[in-house]
What we know:
By secondary structure, the chain is mainly α.
Amino acid sequence: MRFPDNPVKIEGIEYVYPTVSEYLSKQTVYAFLFAFLAMIVYVAFRFKSGLWGIVSVMGIIHDIVISLGFVILANKEINITAVAALLTVAGYSINDTIVLFDRTKENLKLLAKEDFVEVINNSINEVLVRTIVTSLTVFIVACSLFFFGGEVMHTFAYIMIIGTVLGVFSTIFVCAPLVCEWGIRRSKRLETVVKHGDVRSK
């Protein structure tokens, strides 16, 4: 079928050779490694514990890996836009986790006599409304971009929709339980040390 009145116009041609693809892959890996390292250092410095930083990054890795899995399942192209979206998910996830950890740090001082598990639980309840409202706002914006943003924003919005949900999930059900488990084991170690100290003193 021919359309003489509407000739085809080539706007541009792009080629991605194996060398370029390999370069982009390496740069992506470096970007994520640098981001993870910087986040560990920041959170460790902020909360004076390297464990909190490691736990935060574990939550981020959880979000990114699952988001990437959904991208592969949807057979979407993994390009610069997808990488930017995954890094955005990482930043969003760490922000949500830091809010919870910051409230936990405050409650550890205010509720010093409470059990560590109760402190974590109270902290989650205190930030839950804020987390839901913020996440719901981002989710609505991401859905708007997904349905009305056009093909250019489609992959970015798709990853953000998934990442927004995962960010809330990982903060409450991954990072908080890991820190809680660390607190329980730390308390048990301290109790063991105290008991042994009492036995030796006797």
